[in-house]
Amino acid sequence: MLGPVILAASRSDKMRRLVSAAPGTKQVVARFIAGEIVDDVVPIVQELAACGLEVTLDVVGEDITTVEQSHAARDAYLELIGRLQELGLGERAEMSVKLSMFGQSLENGHELALANVRPVVEAAAAIGTTVTLDAEDHTTLDSMFAIHEELRKDFPQTGCVIQAYLFRTEDDARRLAANGSRVRIVKGAYKEPASVAIQDKPEIDKAYVRIMKILMDGEGYPMIGSHDPRLISIGQELARRAGRKLDEYEFQMLYGIRSEEQNRLAAEGHRMRVYTAYGTDWYGYFMRRLAEKPANLLFFVRSILTKG
């Protein structure tokens, strides 16, 4: 299977250099990455909002190695929030953050990440929006959930992400659904061992459906992160059975993928949020997008050959 190979490559500095230098890379990266700076992404947010879509913004670059870089990540989000405030886009755009980017993997990383993310959450709340904590590999999750719980004491709208392929996730979903959290469910995009994660794709899909049902039947706000038409249809049916109104859950898809479906769901009255990443350190995010779907990899290879 190509997926695990690509995920392994996402951590390779040698592959980072090779992919970055490939002649077709820039064209393909532009499909998934909205730009490199705030000025690139703001027009895209405005365009999506004008189409009735909502946005979650991710400043990419989780592979940091110094405290100074963690502070720079914090400041990049604060700059983004300032621009959204200036343009009155706070109610249409939230933020997604990876705590590794805020220093979680460094010495005293839990405390550092909490100290860095709190002012971002505070600033987001001040303009009428919120922050969702992205899930990363399984070794980081206990820290992420603890930070999520701490932030919700003052900012209850702070969201988090759970990954269907992990064995622990159904228990996490029950806990989060019971306490009224905003929860995004995704399949999972990290290379995880068989001891902690389901390896068979059909079984991952079954777990995804079970977890959706837990969230829809719970007290929280489910955010269905999927491009899979079957899972989206099942999500709609589970919401109907749970008696949820259209504004009591939402769908989320990645920028650059299935745009017509995004517009269709929004036109039907569903809350549809577009996960929009930008920044210069795009490599890890880009490689996970290639790993998720073979068609993405084929598109990349074809572009390289065309440009070559």
TrEMBL record:
It comes from the Bacteria. Keywords: FAD, Flavoprotein, Nucleotide-binding, Oxidoreductase, Proline metabolism. Coiled coil: none annotated. Residues 45-298 form the Proline dehydrogenase domain. Its cofactor is FAD. Pfam families: Pro_dh. Its EC number is 1.5.5.2. Pathway: Amino-acid degradation; L-proline degradation into L-glutamate; L-glutamate from L-proline: step 1/2. It catalyses: L-proline + a quinone = (S)-1-pyrroline-5-carboxylate + a quinol + H(+). PANTHER family: PROLINE DEHYDROGENASE 1, MITOCHONDRIAL (PTHR13914:SF0), PROLINE OXIDASE (PTHR13914). This is proline dehydrogenase.
